[in-house]
Amino acid sequence: MEVNATTAYAALDWTMLDFAAITRYRSAKEDVTAAYYNAQSSRGLVVLNVGNQYLQTLADQSQIDSAEALLRADDVLLKQAQAEHEAGTAARLDELRARVQYQTQQQKVIAAQNAFDKDKILLKREIGVPVEQKIQLTDTAPYADLERMSIDDARRLAYKSRQDYQGMQHQVRSTQLSRSAARYERLPTLTASGNYGVTGLTTQGPYHGTFVAMGELTLPLFKEAQFRGDADVAAAQESDAVNRMANLKQQIDQQLRDSLLDLQSSQALVMVSQQNVDLATRALSDSNDRFAAGVDDNLPVVQAQATLSQAQSQLIADTLSYNQAKLSLARNLGLVDTQYKIYLHGK
Predict the structure, then answer these.
(1) pLDDT < 50: residue spans in the chain
(2) How many angstroms separate the CA atoms of 185 and 233, rounded?
(3) Within 13 Å and on the Cβ side, how many CA atoms surround 114?
(4) Tell me, what's the pLDDT at 96?
(5) Separation of CA 95 from chain center
(6) Cα–Cα nearest to 9, from 224, 266, 198, 148
(7) Which residues contact residue 95 at a Cβ distance below 8 angstroms, ignoring those fewer than 6 apart?
(8) pTM
(9) What is d(CA 13, CA 201) in angstroms, rounded to the nearest whole number?
(10) What pLDDT sits at residue 142?
(11) Which of 83, 148, 175, 199 qualifies as a cystine partner to 238, CB 3.0-4.6 A?
(12) Which residues of 134-168 are buried (b: 16+ CB within 10 A; e: fewer)?
């Protein structure tokens, strides 16, 4: 007589207590958090690079505006010299000198436009915009004084805000947990397993419940060499992470001191450049008045315009350096991706 039986069951295996595995899980979570902060730190670097290139492009635009303004002034001077030469009140030398100055300024406008176009291409590359796409810069080169900060305040803020420092802290914590997990490998582990099912005659029944349940305590008795090796590796990783943390703190201190020095010196340079532009503007105005009154020829005017052009170019360059120093400080403080507007515009 043939009898068909049917059996169906579900099994469950469960590790109830494993200190090493739990600690390794906590270590892995620290690694995930460290990876997040490292990604945020990379984001800050992108913001810094884009910001620097944007400031450079704005500075090029300012150079163009300054060069074109001086070109218009040179055009007026050239026409005035031509008129006076035709009237017989000025020598031809004045007209030639004015024409040379005008054409020289034309060259500066062309060079400034070329630099602007090239830096705009680099800006498109930094922000991921196709090179052929047209963009228009609506801002002007910003300038705002930044409140001075002591090195102690800067360090405290950097330790709190810098993503790479926070990521390194989590990496150190991860290696510490890994070392603890290596020690816990010597501890016993407790597992439970079991199954539950039904058994009976196919299509007829009756079906009866069946189950098996058991617990297992595992003692690692003959793995001492492996445990020592794991412990040595974990200790070396922890020591390396601690050393990298100490090196990062020294690096942060150096970066902050450099940024504060750059900020102080570049701000002083901007102030001197502003005074030079004011003095050069006054000198050009006086020279124009003397030339218009016929007291002097146009040589002092040409010289004063060249001095003003140099002073304006230097002011633009110093303002760029000051803005870039502020962005660099914000980066070293860990704030460039969230507070760059405050550091550039002062609000």
Answers:
(1) none
(2) 14
(3) 6
(4) 87
(5) 52
(6) 198
(7) 78, 81, 82, 85
(8) 0.81
(9) 28
(10) 86
(11) 175
(12) eeeeeeebbeeebeeeeeeebbebbeebbbbbbbb
The residue among 1, 18, 6, 81 whose CA lies nearest residue 217 is: 18
Q: Which of 68, 73, 71 is nearest to 287 (CA)?
A: 73
Contact present, 325 and 270 (Cβ < 8 Å): no
For the chain, domains (ranges, CATH) are: 5-345 (1.20.1600.10)
Say how many CA atoms lie within 13 Å of 57 toward its Cβ.
Answer: 21
Which residue is associated with the tokens 């069946």? 210
Task: Say which amino acid occupies 85.
Answer: H
Q: Which of 146, 140, 144 is nearest to 59 (CA)?
A: 140
3-state SS record for the chain = CCCCEEEEEEEEEEEEECHHHHHHHHHHHHHHHHHHHHHHHHHHHHHHHHHHHHHHHHHHHHHHHHHHHHHHHHHHHHHHHHHHHHHCCCCHHHHHHHHHHHHHHHHHHHHHHHHHHHHHHHHHHHHCCCCCCCCCCCCCCCCCCCCCCCHHHHHHHHHHHCHHHHHHHHHHHHHHHHHHHHHHCCCCEEEEEEEEEEEEECCCCCEEEEEEEEEEEECCCCCHHHHHHHHHHHHHHHHHHHHHHHHHHHHHHHHHHHHHHHHHHHHHHHHHHHHHHHHHHHHHHHHHHHHHCCCCCCHHHHHHHHHHHHHHHHHHHHHHHHHHHHHHHHHHHCCHHHHHHHHHHCC
Task: Identify the residue whose tokens are 């290696």.
Answer: 175
